Amino acid sequence: MKILFRLLLCSLLALSAGCATEQVAPAGAPAAAASTPPPLLLISIDAYRADYIKRGLSPTLQMLANHGVRAQSMQPSFPSLTFPNHYTIVTGLRPDHHGIVNNRMYDPRLGKFALGDRAAVSDGRWWSEGTPIWETADQHGIRTATMFWPGSSADIHGQHPDYWIPYNGKLTAIQRADQVLAWLDLPAAERPGFLTLYFDRVDHAGHGFGPDSAQVDAALRSTDAALAHLVQGLRDRGMFKHMNIIVISDHGMASVPRDHNIYIDNFLHADQVQTVGLGVLAGFNPKPGHDFAKIEAAMEKPHRHMQCWDKSRVPARFDYGKNPRVPQLLCLADVGWRITSHAHMAIHSKVSIGNHGYDNADPRMQALFVAHGPAFRRGIVVKPFPNVDVYPLMMHLLDLPPMASDGSYDAVKDMLNPASR
Ligand code: AMP
Ligand code: ZN
Ligand code: ZN
Fold it and tell me: What pLDDT shows up at residue 288?
Protein backbone atom coordinates (compact mmCIF):
# COMPACT_ATOMS: atom_id res chain seq x y z
CA MET A 1 0.00 0.00 0.00
CA LYS A 2 2.81 2.35 0.96
CA ILE A 3 4.29 1.96 -2.47
CA LEU A 4 0.94 2.50 -4.14
CA PHE A 5 0.46 5.84 -2.41
CA ARG A 6 3.96 6.99 -3.20
CA LEU A 7 3.46 5.84 -6.73
CA LEU A 8 0.17 7.65 -7.10
CA LEU A 9 1.80 10.82 -5.88
CA CYS A 10 4.69 10.21 -8.20
CA SER A 11 2.41 9.51 -11.11
CA LEU A 12 0.40 12.68 -10.56
CA LEU A 13 3.62 14.64 -10.59
CA ALA A 14 4.84 12.74 -13.59
CA LEU A 15 1.72 13.51 -15.53
CA SER A 16 2.12 17.22 -15.01
CA ALA A 17 5.84 17.73 -14.79
CA GLY A 18 8.26 14.86 -14.32
CA CYS A 19 8.55 12.53 -11.44
CA ALA A 20 12.20 11.71 -11.32
CA THR A 21 14.63 14.36 -10.25
CA GLU A 22 17.56 11.99 -10.07
CA GLN A 23 19.82 11.28 -13.03
CA VAL A 24 20.01 7.52 -13.44
CA ALA A 25 22.09 5.11 -15.46
CA PRO A 26 20.22 3.50 -18.35
CA ALA A 27 18.35 0.42 -17.15
CA GLY A 28 19.95 -2.77 -18.33
CA ALA A 29 22.95 -0.91 -19.75
CA PRO A 30 26.19 -2.89 -19.64
CA ALA A 31 27.20 -1.14 -16.42
CA ALA A 32 24.29 -2.83 -14.64
CA ALA A 33 24.97 -6.11 -12.87
CA ALA A 34 25.77 -8.69 -15.55
CA SER A 35 23.30 -11.17 -14.09
CA THR A 36 20.33 -8.78 -14.25
CA PRO A 37 18.14 -9.43 -17.29
CA PRO A 38 17.22 -6.37 -19.36
CA PRO A 39 13.92 -4.76 -18.35
CA LEU A 40 10.89 -6.19 -20.11
CA LEU A 41 8.02 -3.96 -21.20
CA LEU A 42 4.78 -5.69 -22.21
CA ILE A 43 2.44 -3.42 -24.17
CA SER A 44 -1.16 -4.26 -25.03
CA ILE A 45 -3.16 -2.48 -27.71
CA ASP A 46 -6.62 -3.79 -26.97
CA ALA A 47 -8.38 -5.23 -30.06
CA TYR A 48 -5.55 -4.44 -32.48
CA ARG A 49 -6.45 -6.99 -35.16
CA ALA A 50 -3.48 -8.80 -36.75
CA ASP A 51 -4.03 -7.23 -40.17
CA TYR A 52 -4.35 -3.61 -38.91
CA ILE A 53 -0.58 -3.25 -39.16
CA LYS A 54 -0.89 -3.48 -42.94
CA ARG A 55 -2.91 -0.25 -43.05
CA GLY A 56 0.29 1.76 -42.81
CA LEU A 57 -1.01 3.77 -39.86
CA SER A 58 1.32 2.28 -37.26
CA PRO A 59 4.81 3.42 -38.31
CA THR A 60 6.36 2.99 -34.87
CA LEU A 61 4.99 -0.51 -34.48
CA GLN A 62 6.21 -1.27 -38.00
CA MET A 63 9.67 0.07 -37.08
CA LEU A 64 9.76 -2.26 -34.05
CA ALA A 65 8.74 -5.15 -36.30
CA ASN A 66 11.30 -4.24 -38.97
CA HIS A 67 14.10 -4.29 -36.41
CA GLY A 68 12.66 -7.11 -34.35
CA VAL A 69 10.12 -9.91 -34.66
CA ARG A 70 6.55 -9.91 -35.92
CA ALA A 71 4.18 -12.86 -35.91
CA GLN A 72 1.90 -13.17 -38.93
CA SER A 73 -0.75 -13.28 -36.21
CA MET A 74 -1.21 -14.57 -32.69
CA GLN A 75 -4.18 -16.73 -31.80
CA PRO A 76 -6.23 -15.58 -28.81
CA SER A 77 -7.62 -18.08 -26.35
CA PHE A 78 -11.32 -18.77 -26.21
CA PRO A 79 -13.39 -16.72 -25.57
CA SER A 80 -11.71 -13.88 -27.50
CA LEU A 81 -12.52 -11.32 -24.80
CA THR A 82 -10.39 -8.76 -22.99
CA PHE A 83 -10.11 -9.97 -19.41
CA PRO A 84 -9.74 -13.70 -20.21
CA ASN A 85 -6.98 -13.05 -22.75
CA HIS A 86 -5.04 -10.45 -20.81
CA TYR A 87 -4.88 -12.85 -17.89
CA THR A 88 -3.83 -15.65 -20.22
CA ILE A 89 -0.91 -13.57 -21.46
CA VAL A 90 0.45 -13.00 -17.96
CA THR A 91 -0.19 -16.54 -16.67
CA GLY A 92 0.20 -18.82 -19.71
CA LEU A 93 -3.10 -20.47 -18.76
CA ARG A 94 -6.19 -20.81 -20.91
CA PRO A 95 -9.22 -18.99 -19.42
CA ASP A 96 -10.75 -22.30 -18.33
CA HIS A 97 -7.60 -22.89 -16.25
CA HIS A 98 -7.02 -19.41 -14.77
CA GLY A 99 -10.64 -18.80 -13.88
CA ILE A 100 -11.29 -15.49 -15.67
CA VAL A 101 -13.58 -17.29 -18.06
CA ASN A 102 -15.47 -14.21 -19.29
CA ASN A 103 -15.71 -10.45 -18.78
CA ARG A 104 -18.98 -11.19 -17.02
CA MET A 105 -19.14 -14.13 -14.61
CA TYR A 106 -21.10 -15.73 -11.84
CA ASP A 107 -19.49 -17.77 -9.07
CA PRO A 108 -21.70 -19.38 -6.44
CA ARG A 109 -19.26 -18.35 -3.69
CA LEU A 110 -18.20 -14.91 -4.95
CA GLY A 111 -21.32 -13.70 -6.71
CA LYS A 112 -21.16 -11.56 -9.85
CA PHE A 113 -18.16 -10.25 -11.74
CA ALA A 114 -18.22 -7.50 -14.39
CA LEU A 115 -15.52 -5.24 -15.87
CA GLY A 116 -17.02 -2.10 -14.43
CA ASP A 117 -17.45 -3.55 -10.93
CA ARG A 118 -14.40 -2.20 -9.17
CA ALA A 119 -14.91 -4.30 -6.02
CA ALA A 120 -15.09 -7.56 -7.97
CA VAL A 121 -12.23 -6.67 -10.31
CA SER A 122 -10.05 -5.87 -7.26
CA ASP A 123 -10.97 -9.03 -5.37
CA GLY A 124 -8.01 -11.40 -5.60
CA ARG A 125 -10.20 -14.46 -5.11
CA TRP A 126 -11.45 -14.15 -8.69
CA TRP A 127 -7.88 -14.25 -9.99
CA SER A 128 -6.22 -16.74 -7.67
CA GLU A 129 -6.42 -19.80 -9.95
CA GLY A 130 -3.51 -18.28 -11.89
CA THR A 131 -0.20 -16.79 -10.79
CA PRO A 132 0.56 -13.65 -12.80
CA ILE A 133 4.10 -12.97 -13.91
CA TRP A 134 4.37 -9.97 -11.60
CA GLU A 135 3.85 -12.20 -8.54
CA THR A 136 6.71 -14.57 -9.45
CA ALA A 137 8.93 -11.67 -10.53
CA ASP A 138 8.42 -9.97 -7.17
CA GLN A 139 9.28 -13.17 -5.35
CA HIS A 140 12.58 -13.26 -7.23
CA GLY A 141 13.50 -9.69 -6.51
CA ILE A 142 12.38 -8.08 -9.76
CA ARG A 143 10.27 -5.00 -9.19
CA THR A 144 7.11 -4.82 -11.25
CA ALA A 145 4.94 -1.96 -12.50
CA THR A 146 1.62 -2.07 -14.32
CA MET A 147 0.29 0.91 -16.24
CA PHE A 148 -3.07 -0.93 -16.25
CA TRP A 149 -3.56 -4.63 -16.84
CA PRO A 150 -6.57 -6.76 -15.99
CA GLY A 151 -5.80 -8.32 -12.61
CA SER A 152 -3.23 -5.74 -11.59
CA SER A 153 -5.56 -3.97 -9.18
CA ALA A 154 -6.44 -7.24 -7.42
CA ASP A 155 -4.68 -8.58 -4.33
CA ILE A 156 -3.88 -11.91 -5.97
CA HIS A 157 -2.57 -14.30 -3.31
CA GLY A 158 -2.40 -11.17 -1.17
CA GLN A 159 -0.04 -9.40 -3.56
CA HIS A 160 -0.14 -6.56 -6.09
CA PRO A 161 2.55 -5.43 -8.52
CA ASP A 162 5.01 -3.12 -6.72
CA TYR A 163 3.66 -0.15 -8.66
CA TRP A 164 0.15 -0.08 -10.06
CA ILE A 165 -2.65 2.33 -10.76
CA PRO A 166 -6.40 1.73 -10.40
CA TYR A 167 -7.99 1.56 -13.83
CA ASN A 168 -8.97 4.96 -15.16
CA GLY A 169 -9.98 5.03 -18.80
CA LYS A 170 -9.60 8.83 -18.88
CA LEU A 171 -5.81 8.71 -18.71
CA THR A 172 -4.59 9.52 -22.23
CA ALA A 173 -2.24 7.24 -24.13
CA ILE A 174 0.57 9.80 -23.77
CA GLN A 175 0.00 10.05 -20.01
CA ARG A 176 0.21 6.27 -19.77
CA ALA A 177 3.47 6.22 -21.74
CA ASP A 178 4.83 9.01 -19.52
CA GLN A 179 4.04 6.99 -16.42
CA VAL A 180 6.12 4.10 -17.76
CA LEU A 181 8.99 6.51 -18.44
CA ALA A 182 8.65 7.93 -14.92
CA TRP A 183 8.96 4.45 -13.44
CA LEU A 184 12.06 3.83 -15.52
CA ASP A 185 13.51 7.06 -14.12
CA LEU A 186 13.43 5.70 -10.59
CA PRO A 187 16.78 5.02 -8.94
CA ALA A 188 18.18 1.59 -9.89
CA ALA A 189 17.18 -0.08 -6.62
CA GLU A 190 13.53 0.93 -7.08
CA ARG A 191 13.27 0.67 -10.84
CA PRO A 192 10.96 -2.02 -12.21
CA GLY A 193 12.39 -4.82 -14.33
CA PHE A 194 8.96 -5.83 -15.63
CA LEU A 195 6.37 -3.30 -16.77
CA THR A 196 3.06 -3.28 -18.58
CA LEU A 197 1.37 -0.57 -20.61
CA TYR A 198 -2.22 -0.78 -21.84
CA PHE A 199 -4.04 1.18 -24.57
CA ASP A 200 -7.79 0.87 -25.21
CA ARG A 201 -8.74 3.48 -27.81
CA VAL A 202 -8.54 1.04 -30.74
CA ASP A 203 -10.98 -1.27 -28.92
CA HIS A 204 -13.45 1.53 -28.20
CA ALA A 205 -13.38 2.75 -31.81
CA GLY A 206 -13.81 -0.81 -33.09
CA HIS A 207 -16.91 -1.36 -30.96
CA GLY A 208 -18.44 2.00 -31.71
CA PHE A 209 -17.76 2.30 -35.42
CA GLY A 210 -16.59 -1.09 -36.68
CA PRO A 211 -13.11 -2.31 -37.68
CA ASP A 212 -13.18 -0.64 -41.11
CA SER A 213 -14.07 2.84 -39.83
CA ALA A 214 -12.20 6.12 -40.02
CA GLN A 215 -12.46 6.18 -36.21
CA VAL A 216 -10.40 2.97 -35.92
CA ASP A 217 -7.85 4.48 -38.30
CA ALA A 218 -7.66 7.59 -36.09
CA ALA A 219 -7.24 5.40 -33.00
CA LEU A 220 -4.44 3.47 -34.72
CA ARG A 221 -2.68 6.77 -35.48
CA SER A 222 -3.04 8.20 -31.99
CA THR A 223 -1.95 4.98 -30.31
CA ASP A 224 1.08 4.84 -32.57
CA ALA A 225 1.87 8.44 -31.67
CA ALA A 226 1.95 7.39 -28.00
CA LEU A 227 4.28 4.51 -28.92
CA ALA A 228 6.51 6.97 -30.79
CA HIS A 229 6.54 9.22 -27.71
CA LEU A 230 7.52 6.25 -25.57
CA VAL A 231 10.30 5.13 -27.92
CA GLN A 232 11.68 8.68 -28.07
CA GLY A 233 11.60 8.84 -24.27
CA LEU A 234 13.50 5.56 -24.08
CA ARG A 235 16.05 6.77 -26.63
CA ASP A 236 16.54 10.02 -24.67
CA ARG A 237 17.35 7.92 -21.63
CA GLY A 238 19.69 5.62 -23.55
CA MET A 239 17.38 2.72 -22.69
CA PHE A 240 15.77 1.80 -25.98
CA LYS A 241 18.44 -0.62 -27.14
CA HIS A 242 18.72 -2.22 -23.74
CA MET A 243 15.08 -3.13 -23.19
CA ASN A 244 13.01 -6.00 -24.47
CA ILE A 245 9.62 -4.76 -25.64
CA ILE A 246 6.71 -7.01 -26.54
CA VAL A 247 3.62 -5.45 -28.11
CA ILE A 248 0.54 -7.67 -28.25
CA SER A 249 -3.20 -7.45 -28.53
CA ASP A 250 -5.75 -9.60 -26.79
CA HIS A 251 -7.97 -10.32 -29.85
CA GLY A 252 -9.19 -8.81 -33.11
CA MET A 253 -12.48 -7.20 -34.10
CA ALA A 254 -15.32 -8.19 -36.46
CA SER A 255 -17.97 -6.00 -37.96
CA VAL A 256 -21.51 -6.70 -36.70
CA PRO A 257 -24.32 -5.14 -38.75
CA ARG A 258 -27.00 -3.44 -36.66
CA ASP A 259 -29.67 -5.92 -37.66
CA HIS A 260 -27.63 -9.07 -37.04
CA ASN A 261 -29.56 -9.89 -33.89
CA ILE A 262 -30.35 -13.32 -32.53
CA TYR A 263 -33.24 -12.88 -30.11
CA ILE A 264 -32.65 -15.49 -27.44
CA ASP A 265 -36.13 -14.94 -26.00
CA ASN A 266 -37.56 -16.46 -29.19
CA PHE A 267 -36.18 -19.78 -27.91
CA LEU A 268 -35.75 -19.41 -24.17
CA HIS A 269 -37.90 -17.70 -21.56
CA ALA A 270 -35.87 -15.43 -19.32
CA ASP A 271 -37.70 -16.61 -16.18
CA GLN A 272 -36.79 -20.27 -16.81
CA VAL A 273 -33.03 -19.78 -16.51
CA GLN A 274 -30.47 -17.65 -14.73
CA THR A 275 -28.86 -15.51 -17.45
CA VAL A 276 -25.17 -14.87 -16.75
CA GLY A 277 -24.64 -12.76 -19.86
CA LEU A 278 -25.74 -12.11 -23.45
CA GLY A 279 -23.63 -10.74 -26.30
CA VAL A 280 -21.28 -12.87 -28.35
CA LEU A 281 -20.99 -15.75 -25.90
CA ALA A 282 -24.19 -16.02 -23.88
CA GLY A 283 -24.35 -18.12 -20.73
CA PHE A 284 -27.24 -19.59 -18.74
CA ASN A 285 -27.52 -21.56 -15.52
CA PRO A 286 -30.41 -23.71 -14.28
CA LYS A 287 -33.16 -22.15 -12.21
CA PRO A 288 -34.94 -24.28 -9.58
CA GLY A 289 -38.33 -25.53 -10.67
CA HIS A 290 -37.51 -25.64 -14.38
CA ASP A 291 -36.46 -28.65 -16.43
CA PHE A 292 -32.99 -27.56 -17.54
CA ALA A 293 -32.25 -30.81 -19.41
CA LYS A 294 -35.29 -30.17 -21.60
CA ILE A 295 -34.27 -26.56 -22.18
CA GLU A 296 -30.76 -27.67 -23.14
CA ALA A 297 -32.04 -30.35 -25.49
CA ALA A 298 -34.02 -27.70 -27.38
CA MET A 299 -31.19 -25.18 -27.42
CA GLU A 300 -28.55 -27.66 -28.60
CA LYS A 301 -30.54 -28.30 -31.78
CA PRO A 302 -29.25 -26.30 -34.81
CA HIS A 303 -30.02 -22.57 -34.76
CA ARG A 304 -29.34 -19.98 -37.42
CA HIS A 305 -26.21 -17.92 -36.67
CA MET A 306 -25.69 -19.50 -33.25
CA GLN A 307 -24.58 -22.74 -31.65
CA CYS A 308 -25.39 -23.86 -28.11
CA TRP A 309 -23.78 -26.52 -25.97
CA ASP A 310 -23.97 -27.86 -22.49
CA LYS A 311 -20.57 -26.93 -21.02
CA SER A 312 -19.51 -30.60 -21.11
CA ARG A 313 -20.04 -30.69 -24.88
CA VAL A 314 -18.15 -27.56 -25.97
CA PRO A 315 -15.84 -28.49 -28.90
CA ALA A 316 -12.48 -29.67 -27.55
CA ARG A 317 -10.50 -27.08 -29.54
CA PHE A 318 -11.94 -24.31 -27.37
CA ASP A 319 -10.47 -25.93 -24.23
CA TYR A 320 -13.38 -24.47 -22.32
CA GLY A 321 -16.12 -25.71 -20.03
CA LYS A 322 -14.50 -27.49 -17.09
CA ASN A 323 -14.23 -24.45 -14.88
CA PRO A 324 -17.14 -24.16 -12.40
CA ARG A 325 -17.54 -20.50 -13.42
CA VAL A 326 -18.45 -21.43 -16.98
CA PRO A 327 -22.25 -21.37 -17.14
CA GLN A 328 -23.98 -24.71 -17.70
CA LEU A 329 -25.38 -23.74 -21.11
CA LEU A 330 -23.37 -21.68 -23.60
CA CYS A 331 -24.56 -20.10 -26.83
CA LEU A 332 -21.93 -18.73 -29.22
CA ALA A 333 -22.93 -16.35 -32.01
CA ASP A 334 -21.49 -16.82 -35.50
CA VAL A 335 -18.91 -14.16 -36.30
CA GLY A 336 -20.72 -10.92 -37.16
CA TRP A 337 -23.82 -11.65 -35.04
CA ARG A 338 -24.99 -10.71 -31.53
CA ILE A 339 -27.16 -12.61 -29.07
CA THR A 340 -29.67 -10.29 -27.47
CA SER A 341 -33.27 -10.22 -26.29
CA HIS A 342 -36.23 -7.96 -26.97
CA ALA A 343 -36.15 -6.82 -23.35
CA HIS A 344 -32.44 -6.03 -23.56
CA MET A 345 -32.83 -4.09 -26.82
CA ALA A 346 -35.67 -2.06 -25.31
CA ILE A 347 -33.25 -0.74 -22.67
CA HIS A 348 -29.96 -0.73 -24.62
CA SER A 349 -30.79 0.67 -28.02
CA LYS A 350 -27.13 1.54 -28.73
CA VAL A 351 -25.43 -1.59 -30.06
CA SER A 352 -21.77 -2.30 -30.82
CA ILE A 353 -21.26 -2.55 -34.56
CA GLY A 354 -17.89 -4.15 -33.97
CA ASN A 355 -17.30 -7.01 -31.59
CA HIS A 356 -15.11 -9.92 -30.48
CA GLY A 357 -15.48 -12.91 -28.19
CA TYR A 358 -16.13 -15.22 -31.17
CA ASP A 359 -14.45 -18.46 -32.24
CA ASN A 360 -10.79 -17.85 -31.54
CA ALA A 361 -9.76 -19.53 -34.82
CA ASP A 362 -11.61 -17.00 -36.98
CA PRO A 363 -9.26 -14.74 -39.00
CA ARG A 364 -11.02 -11.62 -37.68
CA MET A 365 -10.22 -12.57 -34.09
CA GLN A 366 -6.46 -12.91 -34.65
CA ALA A 367 -4.20 -10.72 -32.55
CA LEU A 368 -0.95 -8.77 -32.79
CA PHE A 369 2.53 -9.85 -31.73
CA VAL A 370 5.61 -7.68 -32.24
CA ALA A 371 8.81 -7.90 -30.19
CA HIS A 372 11.98 -5.83 -30.17
CA GLY A 373 15.12 -5.70 -28.07
CA PRO A 374 18.49 -7.25 -27.35
CA ALA A 375 17.07 -10.76 -26.91
CA PHE A 376 15.18 -10.79 -30.21
CA ARG A 377 16.32 -11.55 -33.73
CA ARG A 378 16.04 -8.65 -36.13
CA GLY A 379 13.64 -8.33 -39.03
CA ILE A 380 11.97 -11.72 -38.94
CA VAL A 381 8.34 -12.71 -39.39
CA VAL A 382 7.24 -15.86 -37.58
CA LYS A 383 4.28 -18.16 -38.09
CA PRO A 384 1.12 -17.76 -36.01
CA PHE A 385 1.25 -19.14 -32.48
CA PRO A 386 -1.19 -19.26 -29.54
CA ASN A 387 -1.07 -16.49 -26.95
CA VAL A 388 -0.37 -18.96 -24.11
CA ASP A 389 3.22 -19.05 -25.40
CA VAL A 390 3.89 -15.42 -24.48
CA TYR A 391 4.13 -16.29 -20.77
CA PRO A 392 6.95 -18.87 -21.02
CA LEU A 393 8.73 -16.51 -23.42
CA MET A 394 8.56 -13.66 -20.89
CA MET A 395 9.62 -15.90 -18.01
CA HIS A 396 12.65 -16.92 -20.04
CA LEU A 397 13.50 -13.30 -20.81
CA LEU A 398 13.37 -12.46 -17.11
CA ASP A 399 15.24 -15.62 -16.16
CA LEU A 400 12.39 -16.70 -13.92
CA PRO A 401 11.13 -20.24 -13.25
CA PRO A 402 7.79 -20.56 -15.08
CA MET A 403 4.75 -21.94 -13.29
CA ALA A 404 3.02 -24.89 -14.97
CA SER A 405 1.17 -23.45 -17.95
CA ASP A 406 -0.54 -24.22 -21.25
CA GLY A 407 2.21 -22.46 -23.18
CA SER A 408 5.43 -23.68 -24.74
CA TYR A 409 8.78 -21.92 -24.70
CA ASP A 410 10.10 -24.31 -27.37
CA ALA A 411 7.39 -23.15 -29.76
CA VAL A 412 8.64 -19.54 -29.67
CA LYS A 413 12.34 -19.72 -28.77
CA ASP A 414 13.45 -19.43 -32.41
CA MET A 415 12.48 -15.76 -32.36
CA LEU A 416 15.32 -15.14 -29.88
CA ASN A 417 18.98 -14.58 -30.71
CA PRO A 418 20.90 -17.85 -30.21
CA ALA A 419 22.78 -16.26 -27.30
CA SER A 420 19.51 -15.41 -25.58
CA ARG A 421 17.83 -18.83 -25.93
P1 AMP B 1 -14.40 -5.67 -23.88
O2 AMP B 1 -14.24 -4.90 -25.14
O3 AMP B 1 -15.81 -5.81 -23.44
O4 AMP B 1 -13.70 -7.00 -23.92
O5 AMP B 1 -13.70 -4.81 -22.74
C6 AMP B 1 -12.62 -3.98 -22.99
C7 AMP B 1 -12.72 -2.77 -22.11
O8 AMP B 1 -12.45 -3.08 -20.75
C9 AMP B 1 -11.68 -1.75 -22.46
O10 AMP B 1 -12.01 -1.00 -23.58
C11 AMP B 1 -11.60 -0.94 -21.19
O12 AMP B 1 -12.55 0.10 -21.22
C13 AMP B 1 -11.98 -1.93 -20.10
N14 AMP B 1 -10.82 -2.28 -19.28
C15 AMP B 1 -9.61 -2.61 -19.73
N16 AMP B 1 -8.76 -2.89 -18.73
C17 AMP B 1 -9.43 -2.72 -17.61
C18 AMP B 1 -9.09 -2.85 -16.23
N19 AMP B 1 -7.86 -3.21 -15.87
N20 AMP B 1 -10.06 -2.64 -15.34
C21 AMP B 1 -11.31 -2.30 -15.72
N22 AMP B 1 -11.69 -2.14 -17.01
C23 AMP B 1 -10.77 -2.35 -17.95
ZN1 ZN C 1 -9.98 -6.51 -25.62
ZN1 ZN D 1 -13.60 -4.90 -26.83
Answer: 96
Q: Are 55 and 217 in contact (CB under 8 A)?
A: yes
Convert the pLDDT of each residue in 158-196 to its tens digit: 999 999 999 999 999 999 999 999 999 999 999 999 999
Could you tell me if 336 and 260 are in contact, meaning their C-beta atoms sit under 8 angstroms apart? Answer: yes
- Distance (Å) of CA 182 to CA 148, 265, 287: 15, 51, 52
Q: Whose CA is nearest to atom 13 of ligand 1?
A: 115
Task: Walk me through the domains of the chain, giving residue ranges and CATH numbers.
Answer: 20-255+361-420 (3.40.720.10), 261-351 (3.30.1360.180)
Ligand 1 pocket residue status of 250, Cβ below 6 Å:
no
pLDDT confidence bin for 109, thresholds 50/70/90: very high
Helix 173-184, helix 214-236: angle, nearest 10: 20
Ligand 1 contact, 161 CB (< 6 A): no
The neighbourhood of ligand 2, an ion, using CB within 5 A, equals 46-47, 82, 250
Q: Which one-letter DSSP state was computed for residue 334?
A: P
Please give the share of the chain, as a percent, with pLDDT higher than 90.
90
- Beta carbons of 219 and 204 less than 8 angstroms apart: yes
Asked whether 103 lines ligand 1 (CB < 6 A), one says yes
pLDDT band at 415 (very low <50, low <70, confident <90, very high): very high
Nearest Cα residue to 407 out of 380, 376, 381, 385: 385
Distance CA 211, CA 216 (A): 6
Do residues 97 and 408 touch, judged by C-beta distance below 8 A? no
In order, the DSSP letters of 392-413 are HHHHHHTT-PPPS-S--STTTG
**Mean pLDDT, range 77-94, rounded to an integer:** 98
Concerning whether 172 is annotated as a catalytic residue, the answer is no
Predicted local distance difference test score (pLDDT) of residue 31: 41
Determine contact, residues 148/177, Cβ cutoff 8 Å: no
